[in-house]
Design brief:
369 residues, TIM Barrel, eight-stranded parallel beta sheet, two-stranded antiparallel ribbon, FMN_HAD, EC 1.1.3.15, Aldolase_TIM
Length: 369
């Protein structure tokens, strides 16, 4: 059966992957309310398409932190990709590069920054967890810089790991034949079996719970790379990120894996965009599965989006070819959405192209022009 949309990869991946691995990728925190909501919230945004516009030529290109990419669809950091496929992050890096877009490598990758750089050219960002041992952090950031990574995505929503009950039930741990490659030489590459989730125990032991805004300032003293703050959901924190010198914000709830009952990212987006006041770009991840979702995020003010689970599920099913196909399908759907909405380039996508169920009743009928 031909795969015709991104969602279809998940069901096939579920059949193919060991239960512990599939559950690790698929699950969210606690009741998984936010996990469902990340998807469902998109369906509460409808289109107001404009007609009789020449859409024979459509330009989806954009720039992110000064880097030109083919489309506003990028690859989010997802951990331990070799659990999905033997080529893991290598395959994802090649697929993102072939699609002309950005890949974000997870701190907890099963391939190192150097290994990913060795796959060839490509614009790559590095997602950073701040360890208690700051020498480890400084070393990692320097290695990413040396390997040609162009930005740091600092994850700020994980002072502790969210409660992911399937990982507790499965006693999740990294399979013995894999290591967290970026930490291999530092004796931090292995995860022990624990009587709950091995990852939760690892985080409790290694990740710094004291992380605060002053650490963002410290990070700026050790690297010239632009820093994206990943995990912002409120206007207050958006304003603080701007003040602290962040180069951008990623509106993210960590794929609904941290605090359950936070809003869907697409719901939180507009508040963050308004608070940022155009001073720094705002991106989104969480629940994006269709080209229509990408358009909705851009209409609400995002400069681009990141996809996570679709990458690991397609990687599990078809390796590099699967990731290429996901990026291609999303691209084609987004292009079609633009054409049918009457937009020929990204700057033509406006708030007037959508209506949401949180718009005031009169605004639903006649938006401000």
């Amino acid at each position: 059966m031909e795969i015709t949309n991104v969602n279809e990869y998940e069901a096939i991946a579920k059949e193919k992957l060991p239960k512990m691995v599939y559950d690790y990728y698929a699950s969210g925190a606690e009741d998984q309310w936010t996990l469902q909501e990340n998807r469902n919230a998109f369906s509460r945004i409808l289109f107001r398409p404009r007609i009789l516009i020449d859409v024979s030529k459509i330009d989806m290109t954009t720039t992110v932190l000064g880097f030109k990419i083919s489309m506003p669809i990028m690859v989010a950091p997802t951990a331990m990709q070799k659990m999905a496929h033997p080529e893991g992050e290598y395959a994802t890096a090649r697929a993102a590069s072939a699609a002309g877009t950005i890949m974000t490598l997870s701190s907890w990758a099963t391939s190192s920054v150097e290994e990913v750089a060795s796959t060839g050219p490509g614009i790559r960002f590095f997602q950073l967890y701040v360890y208690k041992d700051r020498n480890v952090v400084a070393q990692l950031v320097r290695r990413a810089e040396r390997a040609g990574f162009k930005a740091i995505a600092l994850t700020v929503d994980t002072p502790r790991l969210g409660r992911r009950e399937s990982d507790i039930k499965n006693r999740f741990t990294l399979p013995p034949y894999l290591t967290l490659k970026n930490f291999e030489g530092l004796d931090l590459g292995k995860m022990d079996m624990a009587n709950d989730s091995g990852l939760a125990s690892y985080v409790a032991g290694q990740i710094d719970r004291t992380l605060s805004w002053k650490d963002l300032q410290w990070l700026q003293t050790i690297t010239k790379l632009p820093i994206l703050v990943k995990g912002v959901l409120t206007a207050e924190d958006a304003r603080m990120a701007v003040q602290a010198g962040a180069a951008g914000i990623i509106v993210s709830n960590h794929g609904a894996r941290q605090l359950d009952y936070v809003p869907a990212t697409i719901i939180a987006l507009e508040e963050v965009v308004k608070a940022a006041q155009g001073r720094i770009p705002v991106f989104l991840d969480g629940g994006v599965r269709r080209g229509t979702d990408v358009f909705k995020a851009l209409a609400l003010g995002a400069s681009g989006i990141f996809i996570g689970r679709p990458v690991v599920f397609s990687l599990a099913v078809e390796g590099e070819a699967g990731v290429r196909k996901v990026l291609q399908m999303m691209r084609e759907e987004f292009e079609l959405t633009m054409a049918l909405s009457g937009c020929t380039c990204l700057k033509e996508i406006t708030r007037n192209h959508i209506v949401t169920d949180w718009d005031a009743p009169q605004a639903r009928l006649v938006p401000k022009l």
